[in-house]
Predict the structure.
Amino acid sequence: LLHNFVFSLGLRAEDWAAKYADTNNERFDLSDHMLGGKASINYVIDDSNNIYLSYAKGYKQGGFNVGLGLLGQVDPSDLEYEPEYLKNFEIGFNADIYNYIDLNFNLFHSSRKDQQVLISTQVDPNDPNTFVYLTKNAAEGLNYGAEITTDINFGENIFAFVNLGYLETEIKNWVSRPEVTGRAQAHAPKFSLSSGINFKLNSSTSLSVNFVGKSSFYYSDSHDNQADSYILTNASLTHTINDWTLDIWGQNLFDEYYSTRGFYFGNEAPDFIDTLYRRHGDPRHFGISLKYDF
């Protein structure tokens, strides 16, 4: 039985250092020592089916925020941020069902320490041109959820895929921002979808339709406004002649009106009341692409 198990172990150590100085008298001298790695156990049932369990520790190096016009208004150490560490547990399986369906499923649980978050501030409350973003550390973060990916072969000429994601997140113990402690993290939709189907019309021509969607999510860790959920529909017709590939495509076919970013600050005189400004995704659009493979 033991010959069905595959064990793997990897380690990574990194020393990072950076110095910065400019004519605005902003000076930083940072260094970090970071250690990460991954250990996994894989039980191989056969060539197409396996079950696995893994633990990993990763990191993202620290840094500093420069050119924001905040020097003299905040302590210089507030413009620095520490490395973020992530510990992740994952269990899942890969299965081939009757040579028609490739199914991958996994559960994960991640804890984040000194989570790096992007927050906004307005240096001068009466000047909207001083609105800036800076990176800071929250105390902790928690992520857990599930993912499933499925490739389905309906025959020689029809292929489909379905990818689904479920994600729960939480900001924990952020002492300087207690109002967001316990809230979901920014840009972390609870549900996500990617699916599509491809029709092979003949040996050189295919038609594909795909769908991409997200549930609502917070725009930022600095305010509580949220984006609405959306699903986009895209399609393409592909024709290949020797080394040439021609694509006729359409994106967001039903002209879904959706937002990708949200900014909340005072921008309009005379009172400069905080207002939500959204950055919207691309509307319905079409195009033609021509590619040559050398």
Observations:
- The chain has a mean pLDDT of 89.
- The radius of gyration is 24 Å.
- The chain has no helices and 20 strands.
- Residues 119 and 222 are 5 Å apart (CA to CA).
